Amino acid sequence: MSGITATRVVVIAPAELERRQRLAAWEEYAAARAELTALRAEADTYRSLYGDAVRTVPGGARLRPSASVRKLQAATEEIRRLLDRHRPLLREDVATAASKQASRLVAAAPAARPGPLSAPRSRALAAEQSQPAGPVAGEPADHWREKVTTRVGELLARLPAGTDPAARTACERAVVEIGTATEVRARMLLADLERRVRRATDAAERRDSVRRELAALAAVLEAAVDAPSGVVRELTAAVEEAMVAVEPRLPDGLAERVVAVVEEAEREHRRRVIAAAVSVSLGELEYTVTEGFETVLADQGVAYANLPNAAGYGVKFLLDRDDRTVRTQVVRTAENGAEADAAAERTFCAGLPDLLSRLRRHGVEPEQVSTVDPGTVAVLQVPSVAVPDAAATGARAYAARQERQREA
Questions:
Q1: Residue 13: pLDDT above 60?
Q2: pLDDT at 390
Q3: SS3 helix, strand, coil % of the chain, rounded to 5?
Q4: 36-93 pLDDT, tens per residue?
Q5: Is the pLDDT of residue 394 over 80?
Q6: What is residue 123's predicted lDDT score, i.e. its pLDDT?
Q7: Whole-number Cα distances in Å, 181 to 139, 178, 186
Q8: For residue 327, what are the contacts with CB-CB under 8 A and spacing of at least 6?
Q9: Is the pLDDT at 139 greater than 50, yes or no?
Q10: What's the whole-number mean pLDDT along residues 241-248?
Q11: C-alpha dihedral (332, 333, 339, 341), degrees to nearest 10
């Protein structure tokens, strides 16, 4: 073993494990909540069209990312029950209301000659009229109209709640025209209506897909409490603006920016947890650390501690930017010569197993991945101010305690 080591670490602190479980539960809850919010908005839009024939959809519990895992899971289950119950009820209400509307539009259609057809429709009509048409044996002569009316109701029910008003009006006008048309023309109008509905449905599916992506990003940002607040506000505003647009779209690079910000925040959080575990463990082993050791190690990636029972020697701690590896290196100040370097390295190495054990006790699982034998690499010389002086640090700590006692 040596004074130069590399140790791969994984955060296993119970609080961190609970935090990960909470974030996972939040993602499930946020996805379910977004579905329920969309269903309620859909129901409200349909109610604006069909009135009280469409029932309202109740809202579920509103929680924050800081809620407990148990509460998040319970709320998610409640929302899923609401979705399972009210989604089919909404479809039934809309189907019934649309069917009644279709019957009213067809029945109220004025008796009038059909308007002129466009050139493509005229050709299609001529081709269809060239084919023999007549009632099926045993079927009333006007039974086709009943079937067409039923189909019209089904198509109106399929029109998404957020269909453009102009497109919905055009569909309703087509229904009125069907009410006065001959069978051949009615079936042509019905085919045209089916195409209109399909276009509206496809457009709604695209909008819903984008809104689901945006809702997922909003949920991630809501839980990103460790990310810079200014950046989170900026990204949240961009998400909300995109979501409320008539034609929502995912701005170029927005998802990538959100992922990058959240991942960086997670790295910084883990670095703070690891640095705290190192600092506490060193204190228990009577190392003296530089002022603000924990913060400096997390923010800058390099901090120093003295080496107990080896005057003029210290240990340089390095935390990789990817927060996966803690490296250590024995260093000496200018007051020492190189003759005692190997002994200092052996001193540090002798206590390393205890340090690793204490890291584990404080929620960081260490796995030693590399070492260099003592004396293999020259010990780095650093300025005296880099290595904390145990006596001076102890005196400052004693004075601080005395001051606190006087103030109390």
A1: yes
A2: 56
A3: 65, 10, 25
A4: 999 999 999 999 999 999 999 999 889 999 999 999 999 999 999 999 999 999 999 9
A5: no
A6: 53
A7: 19, 5, 5
A8: 4, 5, 6, 7, 317, 318, 319, 320
A9: no
A10: 86
A11: -10
If one counts every other C-beta atom within 10 angstroms of the C-beta of residue 113, the result is: 6
Domain for residue 350, yes or no? yes
The dihedral of CA 243, 248, 252, 253: what is its sign? positive
Q: What mean pLDDT is predicted for residues 227-249? A: 91
On whether residue 129 sits in a domain, the answer given is: no
The CA-atom distances, in angstroms, between 185 and each of 105, 171, 172, 190, 390 are: 17, 15, 16, 8, 97
End-of-domain residue from the set 219, 251, 283: 251
Residue span of the structural domain in which 194 resides:
15-115+144-251
CA 263 distance to own-chain centroid: 12
Domain count, the chain: 2
Q: Within its chain, how far is the Cα of 254 from the centroid?
A: 13
Q: What's the CA gap between 292 and 304, in Å, rounded?
A: 10
pLDDT exceeds 90 at position 295:
yes
Q: Which residue carries 């082993």 as its tokens?
A: 285
Q: What is the DSSP string of 41-104?
A: HHHHHHHHHHGGGS----------TTS-HHHHHHHHHHHHHHHHHHHHHHHHHHHHHHHHHHHH
pTM score: 0.75
Residue 124 lies in a domain: no
Tell whether the model's pLDDT for residue 400 goes beyond 50.
no
- DSSP, collapsed to helix, strand or coil, labels residue 372 as strand
Of the chain, the percentage scoring pLDDT greater than 90 comes to 54
Q: What distance in Å separates the CA atoms of residue 355 and residue 289, rounded to the nearest whole number?
A: 14
**Distance between CA 298 and CA 270 in Å, rounded?**
9
User: What proportion of the chain, given as a percentage, has pLDDT over 70?
Assistant: 86
CA distance 343 to 202: 75
Does the residue 159 lie in any domain?
yes
* Domain end point (choices 221, 251, 281): 251
To 10 degrees, what angle do helices 183-223 and 143-158 make?
Answer: 20
Question: Which residues, 6+ apart, have CB-to-CB distance to 326 below 8 Å?
Answer: 6, 7, 9, 274, 278, 317, 318, 319, 320, 366
